[in-house]
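Batch manifest, entry 17 of 40.
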Amino acid sequence: MPTPFPGMDPYLEQSGIWNQVQINLIVEIQRFLAGLLRPKKIVAIGMRTRFPGDKWKEEKQRYLEVQDQVSGAAITVIEILSPSNKRSHRREYLEKRMEILGSETNLVEIDLLRAGSPMPMSGKTPSTHYRILVSRAWKRPYAQALLFNIQQPIPDAPIPLRQREDEPAVPLNRLLHQIYDEGGYDLMLHYDRPPETPLDSATAAWAAGLLAVNSNP
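Output type: structure tokens
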């Protein structure tokens, strides 16, 4: 059954759940873009391996990379943030982020997690639950920020390619809700309890009303 939330479901941040959702979302974005960008560009799933202290326990961080089909050059990196990006491995992630921002590669950074401090952005950015950063290489140091809250659908994410090329828009809201429905996440989440990352009082009251309505057919 569908999620009761119009956009991001805060219960998906639950430990052991978000990593599944993140991987599924990466795969669905890859499928969506690959069909639009072929044959001149490919959409590859990249992976970074980290060792969080114990050398026998590795952590894999996946991301997407739009590449030129002929040269293999990276055109755009798409990151879907994980809890470790924002917390335990924040410094490493920010170093990689700066490396991309200092190159000719575009960056799309999708943050659907309320836990952890938001990634830095230049200028005064309003405080919101979620954000998407779109950094076009030819417009730096300026970037586009899509800011939104739990009460709103997730906006479509524009994917910059080469300058003056059309930018496909990824329907993140539709893809995430499709993943939720097809994966049966309604059976895994505990809507009778507060979400793992607490909501502020006003948002908690709104969510409680929404859940009450959806629990009564």
